[in-house]
Amino acid sequence: MSILQIHKLFVSSHEGWDAFARMQASSLKLFVFLVVPFSLIPPLMLEYAGHHIGAVMLPDTSAQAWRTAALFFLIAELITVPLMAWAIKSVANSKGVACDYHDAFMLAAVAPVPLWLSSLALFSGQIALIVAIALLGLAASVTLIFRGAESILKVEEGLEAFDIAYVVTALGLIAWALLVMLGLIPALA
């Protein structure tokens, strides 16, 4: 699948997703070549924002505190993806959908990409823009979960895919809120 075809993951439940599934990438390969590189973006942006936005808004917070928060944030992200894969598998199985861990991991690996990319808004330093881009990233992730549930998990009923996406999104929001709080530790300390 080409990077130029990424938009198809958002608009179609099959065209882009079928190409993504045909890659036959193992969970380890997805983790190393998709999850790790993209999950590096938010911690790096957190460190950048700590030195720029944080230095203005929270001048008493040390650079070491921002570095520590970024490290913990990265570790938490890397742990969250396999846990979300397990949650997706569990939710799908509870709805009567036969789903293996690899399929769930594929969905868990690609769904947070818009959230990871939304952290690039921290370059702007504009709080309203940062929040707007983060919400847009969240909406894009929800769309990926819904489309992926239909294609990767092979859920043929739209309502069932929506139900799975709803539960997975709720769990993802909890994880996202915990990650955001982890990133704000220097500000709260």
Automatic annotation (TrEMBL):
GO CC entries: membrane
Record's bilayer topology term: Multi-pass membrane protein
Main location: membrane
Signal sequence residues: none
Domain Yip1, chain residue ranges per copy: 11-178
Intracellular or extracellular location(s): Membrane
UniProt xrefs under InterPro entries: Yip1_dom (IPR006977)
Residues annotated as transmembrane: 30-49, 69-92, 104-123, 129-149, 161-185
Keywords: Membrane, Transmembrane, Transmembrane helix
UniProt KW Cytoplasm keyword: no
Protein name from the UniProt record: Yip1 domain-containing protein
Organism (species): Thiobacillus denitrificans
